[in-house]
Amino acid sequence: MPEHRRIKGYDMARGLAILIMMVINFNCMLSGENSFPVWLSKAVDFMDRRAAVLLVMLAGTGLTLITKQKSMPQSVSPETRFILLKRALFLFLVGYCLTLIWPADILHFYAVFIYLGIFLAKASNRSLIVLAFIFWFTCFIQIIDLFELIQQISIEYVLAGQIMDICFTGYYPVFPWMAFFITGMWLARQDIKCPIFRKWTFVSGILMLIASEIIGRVPIASLAGIFIDPATNFESYYYLYYVIHIMTMIDLNVPTPLSAISGMGSGLCLIIISLWMADHFTERQAAHLVTAGKTSLTFYIGHILVLQTVSICFNLGDIQNILMVISAALGLFLVGIKIMEHWLVKHSKGPFETIMRRFPFGHQGFGAARQPIR
Questions:
Q1: The whole model's pTM is what?
Q2: Tell me, what's the pLDDT at 57?
Q3: From CA 58, how far away is CA 15, in angstroms rounded?
Q4: Domain residue spans in the chain?
């Protein structure tokens, strides 16, 4: 995206998501089971997958901005469609390569979101809302016995297993994660400069987050005994208990209905907070997050390579003090910022961003000078 069309608040949100993701991944790889202080460990665990939700929503906003679909649906130019398809293919291939060392890779899922988003770019705002609801509603498919049967069959076939992984059982499955992407597409079409819109978006996000978290922490599943006596019909009781448990469980590692609502709520809040920071922070105060946001792909791939190298070479993985883990993640983040600041003096994009734009053949080399911001 050209510099003059970038939105500073979105770059800051993307940088914030990268920082949170780095802390979470460092925690997963380096922390022991009984990390202390407990409250901080729980706070980090609470943010698990929420950074990914934020990145997926921002990918949706980015696609809308690139295709200029800010209000009424228009046709996407063949050139823009071709560029997006190339980027999706690049992310898909790089993502699958990363799965060899990082099973929780998000890039190949990202690619599928972008590919689907290209065909949704012409949809109206109302259609996007309906589609987001449909992708979210598929969370309920997990309670159907047929779903478990399909899972068992897909294990026997490699291609079927990969499709099942991308669509339903992976780390960031299309159902329901595409709902986050579509929400981002819809959000970018709105007037984000309007204080009233920002206020109601933030309030909506807070309500979604709080309501879902409260419901998820109430033992509603235990009420199954009111409707069915486990002593006389244990099988029906257990199935009802399971259905209620899935529907009310909060765990973004599992695509449950309430988890999706909670994740979307936190994503909306973080986007609005980032837009507010972009309006009130000075250039110097916002510089680090903006830099990380502009080079988020490089940060994502780079921190995985560094984290895996450190973990293997030094045999780390049982650090009890989570403050040390967070400090390590923050230290790498700041080092990366300094490196990227020097890189961006001579280049318009980050290293992996440049490679992605040149893929598979490009006309602009690594030495391309930075374009002036207008």
A1: 0.90
A2: 98
A3: 11
A4: 3-212+256-358
User: How far is Cα 148 from Cα 110, in angstroms, rounded to an integer?
Assistant: 25
Beta-bridge mates of residue 319: 31
44-53 pLDDT, tens digit each: 989 989 999 9
DSSP 231: T
- How many angstroms separate the most distant Cα atoms in the chain? 76
Do the strands 31-36 and 319-321 form a parallel or antiparallel pair, or are they unpaired? Answer: parallel
Angle, in degrees to the nearest 10, between helices 8-30 and 257-280: 130
Number of Cβ within a 10 Å radius of residue 369? 9
Quick: pLDDT tens for 51-69: 999 999 999 999 999 987 4
Using alpha carbons, select from 60, 206, 205 the residue that is nearest to residue 132: 60
Burial of 309 (C-beta count, 10 Å sphere; 0-12/13-18/19+): exposed
Q: In the block, which residue shows the tokens 């950074």?
A: 51
pLDDT tens digit sequence for 173-202: 998 999 999 999 999 999 999 999 999 999
| CA 336 to chain CA mean position, Å | 21
